[in-house]
Amino acid sequence: MANRPTQIQRTPNALPARDDGIVFTSLCGSNPKDIGGNCLLVDLYGTKSDGTSEHARILIDNGKYGFNANADIRYRKGNGKSVEGEVEGAFVDIRPWLVDPKTGVTPSGEPKIDAILITHAHQDHLPGPAYLAKMMQVEHQDLVIPPIYSSSYTAEQMKELSVFKRLPEELRDAVTPVVVKPGSAIPDLGESISVKMQPVNHTPGARRVLMSTPAGSWLHTADTKSDPTQPFREPGATMSFGGIPDLKVISADSTSAGKTGPQPSETDIGRTLSRIIKDNGDKTVVVGVLGTNMGRVATVVRAALSEGRTPVLDGSSLRTNAKSVENAGWSWEETCGIERRDIPDRRRVQALLDDGSLKLSDLVVITTGSFAQPNTGLDLIASGRHPFVTAGADVVVVNSQGKIPNVVESVTAMESKIAAAGALMINPEKSVKLGYGPLHRSGHYGEEELKAAAGDMDPDVREQVTFVPVHGGPDLIAKNVEAAHVAGFKNILDLPVNGVEITMDRDGVRESGEPHLPNMFVAVQTSQDWRYPRWDFVPLKAVPSLAESLTPVDPEPEASLALGR
Ligand SMILES: [Zn+2]
């Protein structure tokens, strides 16, 4: 017997169906203590050529919230079943908006979601549908998952998720994204409604979303930056806001908006790496990256080759992601001057070291663990468990990633251990101090980039458009608001909390309805055996340590439309 899906209480749309426009709600992502869980619910209203009205409901992203939860949980479900395991993260529960095939309507009676768009392959945007499908399997529920749309690389990354691989075939099919060409419209949303995913610079295959109705257009930037030197960049990838017809709203996502001054490019970072490698010719060079940052991996590979070294892809996630890049149509040979299969992995390099065809000082070892995640390459080096790199005077370890707030302590501890073992430890701050140059740039725009993107707009349009920062806790939102002022926007909707509904129609842009939070579910990994992972699911409110971070700091936040300064 299938469980009844949880119902989400959501205030009725303030917008009568006959008015053209967009109603937009950021359900999660503006969390005081965690930047995860990006998930936007958008209703688009239009008028067909025969004068009748039409409506489409889309979901943009369904990301993981509570990254570094690492909490063990014991919970007894309503059916008496006990759930025990480690929290993997929480997700917005979208089941109230999926059709039950037995009744033909949604459990909530609300309109169904017609399409799910995934902007890019980061965990705080991507994996919700795969966990949703797993939950439906575990709880024996039958609901119709709407078509999911993404770029080719993002689709490849969905298929690499451990939870995706453990789904039965029909559910795997249901959550395999349909690949849409850059800039082409999502099908079947309506005659007068158009939704397009346009390429941006962030991860490979990252997209922003341009939504258009007869009452105007709304650009959701998703995660974006401006770097024309980014490896695996798509033709036409841009952050520019110029030349978008009938633009009324920009909802903008940057966790880096507070950065002032120009940010380095990947080319600048490549030069820094070359200098470090050249300066340490007799040492093994290890470069720590984030496993998803394939652009940075390409930068390190290029720097290694330019200094006559052999790059090594050390770690299974790097190999998997490198293959995804290739499956999505990019060539490593064209990007870096070496075929992917010619870059040795951990096992192959060990054989080459053993038979004497390579020595350690020939290598640039690219490995994971920039955020000190357990059992990544940098963690293994710090704890003396890496198979062929032993931290000592003949080793340079470079961490090419800036620290984000919730990992500062663990990264600092890891880097100290590596330095204490006698290796030269270079992080972005140290690199600048030693005169090597910048080692890191954020994947998100800073103030200068926002200014440049807005500078492409017709000044009259820029003054009319409403700018809505949508991601991060109150501090980050405040920085994005500040950056928007600097960029010349006059209408800035400052909404530092989740769940605020915003309406755009011919009367303008405004907050509509009370803030409301959706139900969320927590994925718990219940198997002790990493080779055969199993999951179970509990309501977020059963995990107070996570649920607390979702509560707005101000219990009665006052949304304000700040006009001018
Ligand atoms: Zn991202």
From TrEMBL:
InterPro entries attached to this UniProt entry: Metallo-B-lactamas (IPR001279), RibonucZ/Hydroxyglut_hydro (IPR036866), RNase_J_2 (IPR042173), RNase_J_b_CASP (IPR055132)
Keyword set includes RNA-binding: yes
Gene3D superfamilies: Metallo-hydrolase/oxidoreductase, Ribonuclease Z/Hydroxyacylglutathione hydrolase-like
Keyword Hydrolase: yes
GO terms assigned for molecular function: exonuclease activity; RNA binding
Keyword annotations from UniProtKB, A to Z: Exonuclease, Hydrolase, Nuclease, RNA-binding
Residue ranges of every copy of the Ribonuclease J beta-CASP domain listed in the record: 284-414
Residue ranges of every copy of the Metallo-beta-lactamase domain listed in the record: 109-216
Domain of life: Bacteria
Protein name: Uncharacterized protein
